[in-house]
Amino acid sequence: MKTFILTLTGSIFILTAHAQYNKGEAAATAPAKAVYFELGGPGLASINYDMRFTNSEKGIGGRIGIGGFSVNSGSTGTTITDRTTVIFIPLGINYLIGSDGRHYLELGGGITPVIVNDTYSGGSDKFTSTFGHLNIGYRMQPKEAGFFFRAAINPVFGKGLFWPYYGGVAFGYKF
């Protein structure tokens, strides 16, 4: 849990520091930012924030998100006795390659801390883990603010896990 909190705090600090550094630049060349919902990908069903680290539409950037699900698997009358809640926090670095200012190849990777809380009749278990992910995909975003779309293959790997054909799609707003 300490590692997770340090990773999350460090990522937020880096994104904020780059935003503040670039604030003094001309507004016309401010770093591209996007907020989007991703289905699949390293957050399973997540809300994400993405930003370039330079005053450009392309180049190096990062993302942070939060997603997950909760499942009720047992009950006694009106009381839920079994519930599993899983939270994913995808953190990543990506690089956009493109020349027309609208369509990009997106390459990257990162880590996703996972927090699981399993409650069952008679007790509960908490579990944390982390898995790595790669990102190879397509991104469409306007030169100015507007609709944002991305589709990617996201191979995931971790302790005893390798899933090469996992992917996701995302829709959001670029500003």
Structure description:
By secondary structure, the protein is mainly β. It has one helix at 2-23, and strands spanning 33-40, 45-52, 59-76, 79-88, 91-97, 103-120, 123-140, 146-153, 156-158, 161-163, 167-174. Strands 1, 2, 3, 4, 5, 6, 7, 8, 9, 10 and 11 form an eleven-stranded antiparallel beta sheet that branches.
CATH class category label? Mainly Beta
Largest sheet: 11 strands, antiparallel
Question: Which fold name is given in CATH as the topology?
Answer: Porin
Helices, by number, come to: 1
Give the helix/strand class.
mainly beta
Question: Distance N terminus to C terminus?
Answer: 33 Å
Radius of gyration, taken over Cα atoms and rounded to an integer in Å: 18 Å
**Averaged pLDDT:** 86
Overall helicity: 10-25%
Strand content: over 45%
Low-confidence stretches: none
Q: Secondary-structure element sequence?
A: HEEEEEEEEEEE
Q: How many structurally independent domains?
A: 1
Shape type: elongated
Number of strands: 11
Please name the CATH architecture. Beta Barrel
